[in-house]
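== Protein entry: sequence and backbone fold ==
=== Local backbone shapes as whole numbers ===
==== Amino acids and backbone structure tokens ====
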Amino acid sequence: MMRLIHSAFVIARRDFGATVLSKAFIFFLLGPLFPLLLGGVFGGIGAKVASQTEQPVVAVVSSDADFERISAARNRLADTIPEAMIARLKHYAPEPNLAAQQKRLLAMREPPVRAVLTGGLVQPHVTGAVTKDADVVGQMRLIVADARTTEVAPPELPVTQTAVSSGTLVKGRALTAQIGQMLLFFLTLLLSGMVMSQLIEEKSNKIIEVIAAAVPIDAMFIGKLFAMLAASIVGIVVWVSVGALAVQMFSSGGVRTLPQPAIGWPGFLLLGVLYFAMFYLLLGSIFLTIGAQASTAREVQTLSMPVTFAQVVIFGFAATAVGQPNSAEALAAAVFPLSSPMVMLARAAQEPAWWPHVLALLWQGVWVALILRWGAQMFRKTVLKSGPRRPWWKLKSA
């Protein structure tokens, strides 16, 4: 047993040093920066296009006085809900042939008119490809009703601000739970594939056979897995530190404005690291076993694709725990080993109790030991195979 632990430590130290101390690790740390930049650029472009195409335009055919009151009512409504959700108003003076004017306005492409409001404030009438219950019709009903009143501005409403309320607290913690789950899922899925690429490279160079001649196969399996786990944790610590620094520098109020989890930020970050380690060992041992079965990158992609799709389904299963951590679905997802880390991390954001996490970590540790044992056996059986492959029905006789 001591020889196994010592050999695994030697392999882990070798792989960890080769990964972290290499020049490529700098590009690995910079890797998340490119998706964030692309997501920000394309997100901004998409939001701009959506605001231009989805925001309805209503042509208002009325006198200048009526349109001034309608426009003022519309601006008052914009103070309560987002601007992009309210129809834009375009003013047009009435023409003798009202029907022809409506037809021409509805056929306009710049701007694309959704409906035409006629009749002013006395007899308002909406014409267009809209139903009576459409959102734009409801908005115009509120705007016209507000414009008809004699009040110039709504009355002042006294407000007493408190530090927190149950509604904002639950909403903020649910948001923290969702973000934590997504980060845990994507980071684990992204980083656990590193062990496969490294294993394929060593198998193709015959280095793995030299290592296997010096140390037990089980120790090599465990050492590689824990080395990649340690390298991944180093990357996560760097990314979290840089992210917290960016929020502190560029956000008003800094990190204090982030929704605080129920268990507190120190405990939430500690549990995040522990659950990432458990999730990584569970998923990484599966990927490492897949890498042992394959000899080329194409075979790795073919074999890992079903596991990746299954993880997406499991992520959807774990997402049911957000907002209802004590429901039957959430408890079932917490018991299932591959979804348990994501569910329990979300629970840490919503519930302050610590004892469920102690039980969950012990339960996940049992499954990590079982899957590591199974993965090491499969690794030992397949990693040193050479020569032509036998059909599966001849393996037993061989």
Observations:
- The beta strands are 57-61, 88-92, 115-118, 125-128.
- Residues 55 and 84 are 6 Å apart (CA to CA).
- The mean pLDDT is 77.
